[in-house]
């Protein structure tokens, strides 16, 4: 059987050896609150590259200190962060995987002691601080921080950049009518709510000509939140601006639990792919090779993002290959175990 899951995928100037992406996952492992890469990060990402993921995406990495989700997040707001991130790239590339980094800013979902910012001064819930409404100057400064983060990501050797526009973090706070109550040209209409992301993409493109992904929350699970029509508008605009792939997640905008089940977000990747005619990534309770193969063969998405299953098994691609009954290349050191 010729599998899609283990077929290469070229996006812009990058060819991935298969369709398996290690989904971004915060590891909260910076114990010194300075954003620096620790030995744990290198081991963690390199292990999944040994396990034959085609693309390793480094966790949400903050473009400003006040944009960290927690004090233990990785940072990319300083030139000094580049060296540690380079080490992750070197370690991962040795095993034939490509690398990506997710650039993030938590906005009102920053669990920090310092002042936090959002498009509107509405707290996420009573456990979070009330953010300060961003001035136009603060907005420009933050877009510049995303640009500088992208420039440093390039210096660190990443193959792909993903902007974190999902899960109710800053970019998503601008996109969503639930969190963006502004009356200036960054709020109100769908077009205006898209402006912050649009300007961020343009700023990033000035320093980055590689492949660019954006993760979005395609369902906000609230009648007053973004609808599929809004999502298709955002996706079509991103395509027009040269974004290469939309990574379709959901939720996190407001504090409600969501009903999850195998493949619970796949229909979003499918709709965005069909209606905005752009490559998509599917994520969310995809745990088996057969499930991943179904999604790809039925042209519902182009890449499969695996998160928690990779925390259980760094060799998840081997497990998926066994389920599909195919042989895949093994890490040279492990051939006797994988081929016997
Ligand atoms: C420990 C952990 C940390 C996560 N951190 C991030 C993150 O930094 N950025 C992000 O976009 N999603 C993050 N996620 C969400 C995952 O990338 C993924 O979308 C979600 O877990 C659903 O996929 P799964 O069912 O394969 O785990 C995180 C998930 C987990 C379990």
From TrEMBL:
Instruction: Provide this UniProt record's keywords sorted from A to Z.
Output: Detoxification, Flavoprotein, FMN, NADP, Oxidoreductase
Residues reported in the UniProt entry to bind FMN: 23-26, 102, 215, 307-308
Q: Name one GO molecular function term.
A: NADPH dehydrogenase activity
Reaction(s) catalysed by this chain's protein: A + NADPH + H(+) = AH2 + NADP(+)
InterPro entries from the entry? Aldolase_TIM, NADPH_DH_bac, OxRdtase_FMN_N, YqjM-like
NADH:flavin oxidoreductase/NADH oxidase N-terminal domain sequence ranges: 4-323
Q: What does this protein do?
A: Catalyzes the reduction of the double bond of an array of alpha,beta-unsaturated aldehydes and ketones. It also reduces the nitro group of nitroester and nitroaromatic compounds. It could have a role in detoxification processes.
Q: What is this protein called?
A: NADPH dehydrogenase
Species for this entry = Salirhabdus euzebyi
User: What lineage is this protein's organism placed in?
Assistant: Bacteria, Bacillati, Bacillota, Bacilli, Bacillales
- Gene name as annotated: namA
